[in-house]
Amino acid sequence: MTPDARRSARGNLEVRAWLPADAQAVHDAIVDSAEHLRPWLPWVDDWLAQHRDAVASLAPLLAQNATGERLHAGVFLDGALVGAVGIVDAPVDDAVELGYWTRAGWTGQGIATRATALIVETAFADPVVARALIVHDVANVASAGPPRRLGFRHVRDEPSTRPPCPADRGVDRVWELTRAAWARAGGRTPAP
Q1: Distance CA 34, CA 46 (A)
Q2: Hey, how many other C-beta atoms are within 10 angstroms of the C-beta on 191?
Q3: ∠181-185-189 over CA atoms, to 5°?
Q4: What average pLDDT does range 47-61 have in this prediction?
Q5: How far apart are CA 72 and CA 91, in angstroms?
Q6: What distances in angstroms separate CA 156 from CA 1, 3, 153, 177, one per listed residue?
Q7: What is the pLDDT of residues 73-100, one digit of tens each?
Q8: C-alpha distances out from residue 61 to 87, 104, 138, Å
Q9: What is the DSSP letter of 92?
Q10: What single string gives the DSSP state of each residue in 53-88?
Q11: To bridge 16 with a disulfide, which of 7, 9, 39, 127 should be the other Cys (CB 3.0-4.6 Å)?
Q12: What is the b/e burial string over 51-89, where b = at least 16 CB atoms within 10 angstroms of the residue's CB?
């Protein structure tokens, strides 16, 4: 991803690549949301156990952002950190996988959908990317909302190869949105 494609906003919602100054806010958001995130995200316990220094914790993510290998971004609503969204890996073939989480207390407000729409725009700004994927465990019903609302197509359910989480059933639901479908839909984010 190009550096100029790492920040976008719509209304009072901003998505931007993490900055070193975000370290403590990111750490606090994960700690505050641990019980909410732990059932679905395998890295939460590792973060809590190994990342006592907020600045050092964020350093590997900042390094991946700098190389363009991945995009780790914060979701800010009226300036407050309310979640995260990103491009999970560099493009494979013509596809990237997107990921997101919303801070406890901020779910059910469309934040993940709006933030995911902005990161879709960022992904499709890269001419190599023709498809955006979202993958989540079938038991994680809340994570199905953003792809469904944004016009992603459910393409398959498959045995998971990801590290297991406490609430997982071990079956991944895979959603896909093509650049062409996004363009036909107007390629726009939902209104605030």
Answers
A1: 11
A2: 8
A3: 110
A4: 74
A5: 15
A6: 27, 33, 9, 13
A7: 999 999 899 999 999 887 788 999 999 9
A8: 12, 22, 27
A9: B
A10: SHHHHHHHHHHHHHHTS-EEEEEEETTEEEEEEEE-
A11: 7
A12: beebeebbeebbebbeeeebbbbbbbbeeebbbbbbbee
d(CA 43, CA 192): 30
Q: How long is the chain?
A: 192
Residue 27 CA to residue 54 CA, distance in Å, equals 6
- Residue with structure tokens 């600045």? 55
Task: Write down the residue that tokens 């016009």 correspond to.
Answer: 151
**Residue 15 · residue 119 · CB < 8 Å:** yes
* b (16+ CB within 10 A) / e for 164-175: ebeebeeebbbb
Separation between Cα atoms, residue 110 and residue 103, nearest integer Å: 12
d(C-alpha 128, C-alpha 89), whole Å: 13
User: Do the Cβ atoms of 168 and 131 come closer than 8 Å?
Assistant: no
pLDDT above 90 as % of the chain: 48
Is this model's pTM higher than 0.70 or not?
Answer: yes
CA atoms within a 13 Å half-sphere pointing along the CA-CB vector of 21:
1
Vertex 160: Cα angle to 159 and 166 (nearest 5): 120
Amino acid at 174: V
